[in-house]
Write a structure and sequence with these properties.
- 2 copies of one chain form a homodimer.
- Chain A has 460 residues and is α+β, with helices and mostly antiparallel strands.
- Chain A folds into 2 domains: 287 residues, 3-Layer(aba) Sandwich (Aminopeptidase); 123 residues, Alpha-Beta Plaits.
- Helix content of chain A is 36%, strand content 21%.
- Chain A contains 13 helices and 18 strands.
- In chain A, strands 1-2-6-3-7-17 form a 6-stranded mixed β-sheet, covered by helices on one side. Chain A has a 4-stranded antiparallel β-sheet with strand order 11-13-9-14.
- At the A-B interface, strand 10, helix 5, helix 6, helix 9 and strand 11 of A face strand 10, helix 5, helix 6, helix 9 and strand 11 of B.
- Strand 11 of chain A pairs antiparallel with strand 11 of chain B, so a sheet runs across the interface.
Chain lengths: 460, 460
């Protein structure tokens, strides 16, 4: 069987793969720092050349910011195409003094490769290049078509990716996209992330008197915008923690029995989480577990509030203005635009008549839910099972991933395969970031298996 | 009648009085600026020498900060003593470019004397020196005993006055204190301020998770301290604007019928106030007029609130902490310490159990109410009637005056005569501060009359 040959070859090439990855990790491609602009470009060129070397057509594309590497090999007109997304830029390494070995001197210790970007995301997207290389070496061909998109601005919010995708929509057309830029559920529990929460981020500003007033002279008659603001905000949630905005839950798709069962079976410790957060109790939604509440149920949080005097001591002011930022995490089938409208309608109704209110929608993101019944998802299940030796669990994540929304929307993709090869404690964005060499190998295996599984499932 | 002679002499000396006041006003005794330290001392010495020149025993007293001028003339062992309080320091003049004439080049224009300190407080306390001078000139004696206390740190919060008063409690003992450092109710409506609100200023801090969290990863299970804070704060007031803290109103002395009648008769325009504040409606306490609500009823205002992200854009954080400053204006017989305890008890009860709460009392001030039935107050009524030609109105002020609490408490004085000679639009603390020359003259007359009236009422 070809996969056995391929896995064997992956094992025998392992040390070379690690050496190559170390080369890439040694380039400090910190996208946020202008003094690293040259390094960022150097990393892009390294990826470009590597793609060419393994037999892909590849080029750098200018975006207005850091370049995108585009590579492809599409030999089969009637077979499916997999688009692979990754990013070659990294977070800053500060505080560098907290690293045990220098962040850009990749070092192997106890089965882990330590370096900034090891897990996020150089080590993870590199698995696909190694998988392609080994398939081509062993079979002389690819079972399906492949397109590679590796950007250099993920860590700064992908400011140029949207425009780039729109311009290259046809070029990037695919039947599925694989993104390995996250983690397994926990060590040796590989996962497919099939759900992401969406977001509706609002700002409200309350205006009282035209100017700040002395609370001695005007307290008792001047409407206080902070008092008004807290009275509005306090009515956003019910005493049991559920959200009081009328209609908020109307479009929420109920959790399916299999999901609740799957989540209930995950090795999740509330006690560990409470210890980590320094809390005596969590505040789950009534009727839902902690894991369900934090990943699969909608929320409302006040993310910021301000008004009046916050310095040391006592200043007796009635401020002219006060404001707050409020965000709601959304789940299918809530639409950010509809939720923003319900929010606006509700707070407008709550606003005491003696002050005036301004409501702004600052940001919105659609929730994402990928059906596990899609053949591409089932192909990923089998690929991970082959690569890791255990079947993946299905998980939902509480946050949104902006590039996922972008890719889904612009490229009109349903089959989004979020296959994190890392671990929650890899230290992405933190000192001593690392990537398990065992995960690296399993990731390459799974990536290789995925090409074959996508061929089997979609060309039957 | 002697008072007629005295008033006549005040009229004929008017120009000289203005010239002398201009000398004092020309000294930039800005107490908050260390580079004006020499000027502040020069002003103290000017007052000292002036007191001596008009026939008082006088000296400078060191306080650790700017000096206090102490002057007295106590010829009658069995007659009452009036203590006069004033301050020779002034606010900074910035923004100087907004002054029509230089702040320390006193200038008469259209019946007003323009200069920093003209109304607050050099021009006002100077009326007592001129009154004493003229009484001594006309009668060769004083009808009662007088003590003068003029400090140089009022505009920076009188940091050394408390210690000074405690050390000189016996020296300053008096039967009444006159303070002219405020204003009439409005032009040609002289007033006796018989009530000041007190203050209880609290700070509350709510702690949620031990560190800031990402609202995507932890929203739905992590207790949000801002949400908890607003739920607490929103319950401090009832929907009708009254204060919901149990027991808060228990010790509030009801407004007496004469007070409500007096306040109702004052020339007070809600329309003007609304226009000034830029508001369509005021929020009076139910059952009370705007004037009653802002001067004679207790209040609760949130003076500041903070927590999480208040910058531009959207940051999805659940902060570890949030806090607020809340102050309550108090009226007799509310005690700041008791109110602070009721507040603490109530918010502790309101605090959701998944977060922790810290409550601190930052500042307290007793409410002040001076009985209009005191003979000294009735003496002041007659003195103002004589000096201004109309009887004064009785008013309460919404703020506290820290030096009043200090003087009342340390010197154990009940008869506190708050007799503002200025006008609300004198521009104290603002550019183009001024003092009406007509008010200056009426103030001197009233001050002179007060000495005789205190003699009549208390030595009958």
């Amino acid at each position: 069987m070809r996969l056995t040959d391929i896995f064997q070859k992956i094992d025998s090439n392992h040390d070379r793969y690690v050496r190559e990855l170390k080369e890439l990790l040694a380039i400090p491609s910190v996208s946020t720092y202008s003094h690293h602009r040259g390094d960022v470009r150097r990393a892009a060129e390294w990826v470009l050349n590597h793609c060419k070397r393994i037999g892909l057509e590849a080029r750098l594309e200018d975006t207005g910011g850091h370049p995108v590497v585009i590579a492809s090999r599409c030999p089969h007109q009637n077979r499916p195409t997999l688009l692979v997304y990754g990013h070659y830029d990294v977070q800053p390494a500060e505080p560098e003094e907290e690293w045990n070995t220098a962040p850009f001197q990749p070092t192997v210790r106890d089965g882990f490769l330590y370096a900034r970007g090891a897990s996020d995301d150089k080590g993870q997207f590199f698995t696909y290049l190694k998988a392609l290389e080994v398939i081509l070496a062993v079979t002389g061909d690819l079972p399906i078509n492949v397109k590679i998109l590796v950007e250099g601005e993920e860590e700064i919010g992908s400011p140029h990716l949207g425009a780039f995708l729109k311009k290259n929509r046809e070029l990037l057309r695919a039947d599925a996209i694989a993104i390995s830029d996250g983690s397994q559920f926990s060590e040796d529990v590989p996962a497919i992330t099939y759900g992401l929460r969406g977001l509706s981020y609002m700002q409200i500003t309350v205006q009282g008197p035209r100017t700040d007033l002395h609370s001695g002279s005007f307290g008792g008659i001047a409407p206080n915008p902070i008092n008004a603001l807290v009275s509005i905000l306090a009515q956003l949630k019910n005493p049991d923690g559920t959200i009081a905005i009328p209609g908020f839950y109307d479009t929420v798709a109920p959790l399916e029995p299999w999901e609740r069962e799957a989540m209930g079976a995950l090795p999740f410790s509330e006690e560990k989480l409470k210890a980590y957060l320094g809390l005596e109790r969590l505040c789950e939604e009534p009727g839902y577990s902690a894991l369900e509440s934090k990943t699969a149920r909608p929320t409302l949080d006040i993310n910021g509030i301000w008004g009046g005097f916050s310095g040391e001591g006592a200043k007796t002011v009635i401020p002219a203005k006060a404001g707050a930022k409020v965000s709601m995490r959304l789940v299918p089938h809530q639409k950010p635009r509809d939720i923003a409208a319900l929010f606006t309608q509700y707070v407008t109704r709550l606003c005491p008549k003696e002050v005036s209110l301004q409501v702004n929608a600052l940001h919105g993101a659609e929730p994402v839910l990928v059906s596990r019944d899609l053949p591409q998802v089932q192909a990923a299940v089998r690929a991970i099972h082959a690569g890791f030796g255990v079947a993946p669990v299905f998980i939902r994540e509480g946050g949104s991933i902006p590039i996922v929304n972008l890719l889904k929307e612009v490229l009109e993709l349903e089959a989004i395969l979020l296959l994190g090869w890392g671990r929650p404690d890899d230290g992405a964005h933190a000192p001593n970031e690392r990537f398990s060499l065992s995960d690296f190998k399993k990731g390459i295996r799974s990536a290789a298996a995925l090409f074959f599984e996508l061929h089997s499932c979609c060309c039957a």
